[in-house]
Amino acid sequence: METELMTVPVEEIDLGDLSLWVDGPPHAIFDRLRTEAPIHWSEMASWDGEPGFWSITCAEDVHAVSRDWEAFSSERGGILAADHSVPIEFQNAMFIGMDPPRHDRIKALFQRGFTPKRIAAHEDEIRAITLRVLDQLEGRTEFDLVADVAQPVVGRVIGSFLGAPEEDDAMWADFANRGLALGDDELQPEGEGTVLELIEKGVMRVIEMAAERRETPTDDLTSLLVHAEVDGERLEDYEIASGFALLVAAGNDSTKATYSSGMLALLREPEQMQRLVENPEMIPNAVEEFLRLFPAFAHFRRTATRDVEMHGKTIREGDKVILWYPASNRDETVYACPHQMDIERTTDHQAFGAGGRHFCLGTALARLELGILFTETLKRYPSLRLAEEPDAVRSLFANQPRSVRVTVG
Ligand code: HEM
């Protein structure tokens, strides 16, 4: 399929076509767009009632659009390629779907929960969660790094950071997986409750938790948010609940995806895995390379607030604009041999966004958690082997393998 698309006129390529995403992001097409059509229009023709979009694929352009919130709004429309994935009103209730000044006011309050001190204080807990999950695999000769390691660790890490009880982890993971599926039917099976039902249930849970923390303050993030004040103003319950949902979604699928993709890449390149096993001090740098090659989220979307000229094309007011991180992170004008994994490469990337107002709030937590996950997995299992070639999740947003089944060597 991709080979055929290398010869069709570039205007006929529709990046909304899920058949292009069977093996994950369509890198060969992104390579072509960066050189032939750095601003490119896709119709989303196979998606019922979803708007078409402009694709931005070069690192410099992703950077420029990310920083220009006045021309490229996060609030004037949804932030995901499919408007019907998560209700637009709910996307706009989360600060990732707001513009300044509302965005800045709410983010500032949430930032208090993400100080270096608070994150460092969670390190022992993250390690304990990881070791407990790995202990549960004792005696098994085959398991799945996604379902048996990544999911239980990331769900409990974000749950414990926020102060949510462990029995809610499955509900929040379901909310994150369904909301962010964007095309993948297995992540969004029919008949098990809609995203809207999960949102309603989750919001009620957070409102209950907020009421408890108001009565009895604790040292978790929910308590901090309930009591935080900026210029005499406090967060409303719905602002806490929608921010909480944002953190759960961002905290679940992101680190799970990066860990799973990184482990899969190492299993396919055993000599690089061996280098990390023997030199664990290289893990933080390797994590940056995994983030570059396999950004957990394939895109975020903006809406133009005025006509903007770019590379000879006119983006009209109201048009949707998508920032494709898997494309910008492999821009050949920035990275030598961009598709190659080199765990010693020292470069920046755009996996956490490309600067500007919406730059990821969770970078320090994600880096700490990923460092611990890779370190403890490789220490416990220095000679894992891939049991079978996995499928990628077929999604315009979630960039991750469906499973990574391994045998203990
Ligand atoms: C591998 C891990 C992660 C990746 C790749 C990632 C990626 C991103 C990206 C691409 C954005 C949007 C940037 C933009 O639109 O310009 C973002 C925003 C955000 N992320 Fe992350 N993220 C990760 C982990 C986390 C974690 C662990 C949390 C919190 C617990 C988190 C919380 C957020 C929040 C709250 C925003 C919205 C910021 C805003 O709108 O101002 N992320 N992240």
Automatic annotation (TrEMBL):
GO molecular function, one term: heme binding
Keyword Iron among record annotations: yes
UniProt keyword annotations, A-Z: Heme, Iron, Metal-binding, Monooxygenase, Oxidoreductase
Keyword hit for Transmembrane helix: no
SUPFAM superfamilies: Cytochrome P450
GO biological process: cholesterol catabolic process
InterPro entries in the record: Cyt_P450, Cyt_P450_B, Cyt_P450_sf
Pfam family, any one: p450
The family this protein is said to belong to: Belongs to the cytochrome P450 family.
PANTHER family in alphabetical order: BIOTIN BIOSYNTHESIS CYTOCHROME P450, P450, PUTATIVE (EUROFUNG)-RELATED
Protein's name according to its UniProt entry: Unannotated protein
Organism whose genome encodes this protein: freshwater metagenome
Lineage, uppermost ranks: unclassified sequences, metagenomes, ecological metagenomes
